[in-house]
Amino acid sequence: MRITQSMTNRRYMSQLNAALERKNASERKINSTKRYNRASEDPISAAKALRTRKAIANTEDYLSNLDTAEQIYNGADSALMSVNEILDSIIEKVTYAANGTQHDEDEEILAQTVETYADEIVRLFNVDIAERRVFGGVNNDTTIFKIENVGGNKTVTYNGVDVNSLDDPSEFPFSETSFTDIGTGMVIDPATGRVDPQSALPVTFNGAAITGCGRDEDGDAKNIIQITLDAANAVRQGDKIAAMDYIDKLRAAQTSVSVAHADIGNKQEYIEYNKNRLTSNMETLLEQQNNLEGTDMGAETTNWKTLEAIYNVSLQFASSVIPMSIFQFIS
Fold first, then answer.
1. Of 75, 172, 219, 326, which shows the fewest CB atoms inside 10 Å?
2. For residues 246 and 94, is the Cβ–Cβ distance under 8 A?
3. Residue 323's closest CA among 3, 1, 6?
């Protein structure tokens, strides 16, 4: 077979263009810091990288949910801490009224002070944290605790229902719990559509369960706010025996607030643990993503220099392979 000059030229140009493309491809990897720009260049790595990207996106969502939950629990912790401090002040005032000798004006001042404390507790339990009324169950639209005047008596309502009327906190409206997914395998019961409480993190609380509801064996309220108002009324009337009884009931009801406060503290530690876990997972996933998609800059730079040298040498061979006139034309 006869080899013509045109065949030599075509073969040379083909090899030169291939060398140029390899050099340019290496440059693109360096400039983009990516091992490949199309999945077809490395289908196996691309498929693995896609799964890794999905895991990274999910982890980012879980971390965002934990940040919101942390904000909610920190706010709830602060609210319950303040409630406990207020309850101590209420007990102190009622004890002073029950054990001292006051004039009617003094008793009225003490009663009003105790009622002001009740208003403050209501304000704390109605707190809005991260756009949620966290102590209202799933009620996020209306004020959850209210002090209303019913027949001349101050009555506490929770989600529109008298706190004395129901003994079971779960029977109040909106008493369900909202949950957030933090990557521990949230499970939803297909029959009821409800989240398994063990598989996700609650981000709302039943205020009636914390403050108490219903009446005790004496017929008195078990709700802390209502007991406070009833104690204020006893102070106003100068009924020292009743005031002493309410002190004991306040201390008993305060226990449920302390228990809820301790539970929130445990959940805060749980949130911190999961944030550390997910942050560590994220670092691993990002490293995995870089290994699957990222360019090894050191190795690729060396490769690019080699390819550039090959291309430059190929250009130098042109004077020996292609007639000068043609070489001048393509240079």
1. 219
2. yes
3. 6
CA distance 219 to 207: 21
CA neighbours within 13 Å on the CB side: how many for 223?
Answer: 31
Could you give the CA distance from residue 301 to residue 307 in angstroms, rounded to a whole number? Answer: 10
Task: Supply 40's token pair.
Answer: 């077809």
Residue 30, CA atoms < 13 Å, CB-side half-sphere: 15
Q: Among all chains, which residue has been given the structure tokens 């105790």?
A: 114
Rounded distance, CA 257 to CA 241, Å? 25
pLDDT band at 192 (very low <50, low <70, confident <90, very high): confident
Cα 199 to Cα 22: distance, rounded to the nearest angstrom: 52
Gyration radius of the chain over CA positions: 37
The full DSSP string for 175-199 is: ----EE--SS---B-TTT-PBPGGG
Q: Give the helix/strand (H/E) hosting 148.
A: strand 145-150
- Cα distances from 12 to residues 4, 6, 180, 313, in angstroms, run 12, 10, 65, 12
The angle, 0 to 180 degrees and rounded to 10, between the axes of the packed helices 104-125 and 43-99 is 170
DSSP 8-state assignment for residue 144 = S
Output the average pLDDT for the chain.
85
Strands ordered across the beta sheet of 145-150: 145-150, 153-158, 161-162
User: 88: which 2 tokens?
Assistant: 């101590």
End-to-end CA distance of the chain: 30
- Answer for the pair 120, 93: CB distance below 8 angstroms, yes or no: no
Q: What is the pLDDT of residues 277-313, one digit of tens each?
A: 999 999 999 888 877 776 665 665 676 667 666 666 6
d(CA 134, CA 205): 6
